[in-house]
Amino acid sequence: MSRLLIITRSHNPLGGADRIVADLCRELPSRGWQTILGLTRGASFDDPDAYRRVHRNLETIEIDGTHGTRAARLKSLRETIRKTSPNVVLSMRVFDAYQAVAQLKADDLSRAPRLAVGVRAYESAYISDVRRCCGNIDLCVTSGKLIAAACRQIGGMEEQRVESIAGGVHPPREAVSPKDSQSFNDQKPIRLLYAGRLEQQQKRALDLIPFTQALLALGIEFRLDICGAGPEEDRIADQLKLLIDNGQVTMHGWVDQAELYNRFYPNADCFVHFAAWEGVTISPREAMAHGVVPVVSEFTGMHAEGQFLNRINSLCFPVGHPEIAAQRVGELLSTPALLSQLSKSAMETQTGKYSHAGALDLWRDVLNQCLKLPAKVDNFPRIPERLGGRLSQWGVPSSLQLWLRRVLNKPVLHHAPGSEWPTASGLMSEVEQAEIAALAVKLEAETQLEPVA
User: Fold this and answer.
1) Distance between CA atoms of 197 and 115, rounded to whole angstroms?
2) If DSSP codes are grouped into helix, strand and coil, which group holds residue 188?
3) How far is Cα 48 from Cα 37, in angstroms, rounded to an integer?
4) Any alpha helices (H) in 64-112, and if so which ranges?
5) Per residue in 71-82, pLDDT tens?
6) Strand ranges in 95-171 using DSSP code E only, listed in sequence order
7) Tens digit of each residue's pLDDT (9 = 90 or more) over 79-123
8) Which stretches make up the Glycosyl transferase family domain (predicted)?
9) Residue 429 CB burial class (10 angstroms; 0-12, 13-18, ≥19)
10) Running DSSP on this structure, what letter comes out for residue 208?
11) Which of 147, 153, 152, 156 is nearest to 126 (CA)?
């Protein structure tokens, strides 16, 4: 049996990418791949114990980053890889793993693992790092066709080494039927669901506030369930306090997949989603499998993937316009037959490689193919050690700081999870960022079926 080591950050185990990781750990062994999960530990943010409380009964190993320096993280990564002896290392948002595998390849290519990287969102820093490190990346698994195209066209990855694999959607627990237009016509209020991280930069969760205001202005009777946690949770609760007090809005906090499937998806009419960009977002697709109609933003990546088709299986609106999202909900109320039509079409979308079993089979196939291709090895770009604190302010060279910290056993304490275990190199230029953003606009325009009115 081949062996896969997945390396992931442990500071936030509640996201969709971590559900995919857990599925891989549980399901790939039956497809010929023993899977071990490497969890990062830090002094301040990354906590494998918290991760294991959310995702139970996985085979895990800890990667010690508590000293806080890049050199210490690389040493710990190399030790973990040697200890587990994987055929493939899959880095899920842990940039240092790229260099750790590259160093092992440089030492002895015949004994080193292949390097696979997961690029799960259209974020410029990730794609820039694919370009910077492509000489050592044996496989790139993206969440979406748009990201895959960028990894080839900008990242320089070969066609056969890039594959888009969405998070697979489990089928409903019980048989479901499309929404019935007559029963919906008699039923008030409309049942709305938001399920996702409550943060603003990507998910635009604060759009929930003007969205509900627009629903009220349109005279729409509704009940909104908000399932999620994140930095904007308290602000949203404060702004929606009156609606929460009168029962129109309920905030449930983070909800696991089982509860979404048992309690929320079967009872929702409409799923709302405001994100600015996504890979192949999973919660709206899980709702679609239950016949729930998505009212979804035109996030970057939507058109290239073709999962959300306006007025065919969903209703779409421009990013940053929650008032138009409210108008779309009004359309469903005023045209009950539209809800039945979209509901039926939505139920038919999550098949083949978009299903749970289909996605896992594709993971197996691409990992097997990765072992058949020649291993890639190249010089790795120099990544400077970034150390904060007074010694850096005084101009003490980082090499001397590292020596002093080792001698005195003084770890670096980080003030953000992104520096404790970085997701990217930090080397992207403004020119690269503009280039990657321009490619997204170009590819989305080429794949858009029709403008969203």
Assistant:
1) 29
2) coil
3) 10
4) 70-84, 96-107
5) 899 999 999 999
6) 114-119, 139-142, 162-164
7) 999 999 999 999 999 999 999 999 999 999 999 999 999 998 889
8) 182-346
9) exposed
10) H
11) 147
The pTM for the full model equals: 0.89
Sole residue written with tokens 């793993």? 97
Q: Measured between alpha carbons, how far is 442 from 453 in angstroms, rounded to an integer?
A: 20
Dig out the tokens for 75 from the structure: 């040493």
> Contact, 425 vs 117, CB < 8 A?
no
Q: Which tokens hold the place of 325?
A: 């999202």
By 3-state DSSP, what share of the chain in percent is helix, strand and coil, each rounded to 5?
Answer: 45, 15, 40
Residues 136, 116: contact at Cβ < 8 Å? no
In whole angstroms, give the CA distance from residue 347 to residue 287: 9
Distance (Å, rounded) from C-alpha 1 to C-alpha 22? 19
Phi, psi dihedrals of residue 273, rounded to the nearest 5°: -150, 125
**What is the DSSP track for 9-62?**
--S-TTSHHHHHHHHHHHHGGGGTEEEEEEEEE-SSS--HHHHHHHS-S--EEE
Phi, psi (deg, nearest 5) at residue 72 = -70, -40
Here the tokens at position 188 are 């008030």
Residues 6+ apart with CB under 8 A from 2: 32, 33, 34, 87, 88, 367, 368, 371
Domains and CATH numbers, the chain: 1-168+351-453 (3.40.50.2000), 181-349 (3.40.50.2000)
- CA separation (Å) from 421 to 40, 64, 220? 8, 10, 45
Q: Specify the range with the lowest mean pLDDT, choosing from 222-231, 259-268, 409-418.
A: 409-418
Report whether 162 contacts 138 (CB < 8 A).
no
